[in-house]
Amino acid sequence: MNKGLKRKTTAAADKKPKGKAGAGSSKKPKIQTTNVLRNELETLKSGRKVYLQQPGSLVFFKSDKDTALKNCQQNLQSLQRQQEQLQNKMDLST
User: Fold this and answer.
1) Enclosing domain of residue 44
2) Cβ pair 78, 31 in contact under 8 A
């Protein structure tokens, strides 16, 4: 008997946004997650070591707080620009 955790699924969790209405909100969870990461990095003491994941793999590399924070802020700015572009496209199409 498997006593592992089982993921509960609900009808609401299975529904994904479709069409134009969902296109503008697709970046919001990523932006929120990146904001949380930025806040966590900002609260770390100076000089702390962090581990950054190699994109597309399960390999982590040691880095420092300042480098990780800089990368996080750049990623956040990029996501926010993409969100604005999507919002502008949606506004123009309506």
Assistant:
1) 26-88
2) no
Q: Which two tokens stand for residue 73?
A: 């802020």
CA distances from 38 to 4, 33, 82, 83, 94 (A): 32, 9, 18, 18, 34
Q: pLDDT tens digits, residue range 38-87?
A: 999 999 998 888 999 998 999 999 999 999 999 999 999 999 999 999 99
CATH of the domain at 46: 1.10.287.370
What are the start-end ranges of the E strands in 28-71?
49-53, 60-64
Number of domains composing the chain: 1
pLDDT tens digits along 10-48: 444 444 444 445 555 677 899 999 999 999 999 999 888
Provide the whole-model pTM.
0.65
